[in-house]
Design goal:
With about 350 residues, the protein is of the alpha+beta class. It has 2 domains: about 160 residues, FAD/NAD(P)-binding domain (3-Layer(bba) Sandwich), CATH 3.50.50.60; about 130 residues, D-Amino Acid Oxidase, subunit A, domain 2 (D-Amino Acid Oxidase, Chain A, domain 2). It is about 25% helix and about 25% strand. It is built from 6 helices and 21 strands. The strands form 4 sheets. Strands 1, 2, 11, 12, 13, 14, 20 and 21 form an 8-stranded mixed β-sheet that branches. The chain has an 8-stranded mixed β-sheet with strand order 8-9-7-16-17-18-15-19. A hairpin with a 1-residue loop joins strand 16 and strand 17. Helix 2 packs across helix 6. The longest helix has 19 residues. The structure holds flavin-adenine dinucleotide (FAD). Flavin-adenine dinucleotide (FAD) binds next to helix 1, strand 2, strand 15, strand 19 and helix 6.
């Protein structure tokens, strides 16, 4: 018998597996290998100050140092390179934007995250003119696809990973364990991303889902070495191409990439980038967003062997490590869950 069966190997399932195994627990990880996994298409940007009003991300003082430390520890432990410190430049569209930016910098709570002077580096001369730019400090990027691929290979070699779709109807929930086929585990952790809302045990939670489309482009002659944000991000990839994204919509009737999404990305990119580009790929995925924008952690109210870790929304790279470790502390040491992420903040069953 293993300790934990983990369902879903995006960033959520991967981090759960990592922390549980580090604590000496026996795990098995399942993933259905969907090309629409959010983590397979995420830019993996960790950005402490976001939005048009330049506001610090929720709990960033706790989340960001923990995320940096976790990814750096993993790099050392497994001798991989997946985490990159990278400057982020953002457009300030007008004088009001600039004033707001400069005002924030004078706030001691923000000064370590923002700089009034932005160095455009190799973007210099390659952009259509904008009013001004600001630079966000302490930004970083997790190469999420490589991170996940690394752990998949590692667990595959150890016989701890299978490609499989788990249907909860096939679970045999017993007094001391849960059985799924030949696998018997003390508990199951569902890390199903946007598919979580189809899980009959957890679909009472207010899942939302926000579709994002992205492109991979080649820009001949370009050598950009930082992230630029102007309505969308342009981000250098290890293969010499650029990740360009993203669209963001809560209303969609399918998960596939669309011509409208592609047209929107092209238009926004052409609005600021001078050089021609070639589209290498166009992808889409559904972010596991949640009504109150806080993760879902905890046990099913009636079936305590069933556990959820989900709701990482638009920020899996920064939220994932801290809240995965928090859930592991709860499972292994009995630590209380933070009420802001505990699924008991929602009534069960959901009111009609
Ligand atoms: C275009 C785009 C850009 C983004 N950019 C960023 C960014 O810059 N920074 C950032 O932090 N976040 C970003 N995100 C958000 C980020 O992708 C998510 O926060 C994160 O990846 C969610 O991870 P997850 O593991 O919860 O879900 P997922 O990555 O979707 O993983 C869930 C996995 O579970 C599998 N699965 C589901 N149900 C089952 C089942 N029953 N049986 C077997 N397998 C199952 C799925 O196939 C999938 O592999 C972006 C998202 C998108 C779409």
């Amino acid at each position: 018998m293993i300790d934990y069966l983990i369902v879903g190997q995006g960033i959520a399932g991967t981090l759960m597996g990592y922390f549980l195994q580090k604590a000496g627990k026996r795990i098995h990880v399942l993933d259905n290998d969907s090309p629409r996994s959010s983590s397979k298409h995420a830019a993996g940007i960790i950005n402490p100050v976001t939005g048009r009003r330049f506001v610090k991300s929720w709990r960033i003082e706790d989340l960001m140092p923990f995320a940096h430390q976790t990814y750096q520890n993993i790099e050392l432990e497994f001798e991989i390179k997946v985490f990159h410190h990278i400057p982020l430049i953002r457009t300030l569209y007008d004088q009001k934007d600039r004033n707001n930016w400069m005002l924030r910098i004078t706030d001691p709570a923000y000064e370590k995250y923002m700089d009034g002077k932005a160095d455009l580096g190799s973007y210099e001369g390659q952009l259509h003119p904008d009013f001004s730019y600001g630079q966000t400090l302490q930004t970083a990027r997790l190469d999420m696809p490589a991170f996940i691929a690394h752990f998949r290979k590692y667990w595959e070699k150890r016989g701890e990973f299978s490609i499989s779709q788990l249907s909860v109807e096939d679970l045999d929930i017993q007094a001391d364990s849960v059985r799924w086929g030949d696998l018997q585990a003390r508990q199951i952790i569902f890390c199903e991303g946007s598919w979580g809302k189809q899980n009959p045990y957890f679909n009472y939670l207010p899942f939302r889902g926000a579709k994002g489309e992205i492109m991979e482009v080649a820009i001949p002659g370009a050598n950009f070495d930082r992230i630029l944000k102007r309505k969308l991000f342009i981000l250098p990839l290890e293969n010499g191409n650029y990740w360009v994204g993203t669209t963001n919509t809560n209303w969609f009737d399918h998960e596939e990439p669309t011509e409208e999404g592609k047209a929107e990305l092209i238009e926004k990119l052409q609005a600021f980038l001078k050089p021609d580009f070639e589209i290498i790929g166009h992808h889409s995925a559904i972010r596991p967003t949640v009504k109150d924008r806080r993760p879902f952690l905890g046990h099913h109210p009636e079936q305590s062997r069933l556990i959820i870790f989900n709701g990482l929304g638009t920020k899996g790279a920064s939220l994932g490590p801290y809240w995965a470790a928090h859930l592991v502390d709860h499972l292994l040491k009995g630590a209380d869950l933070d009420p802001s992420v505990d699924i008991r903040r929602y009534p069960y069953p959901a009111p009609a």
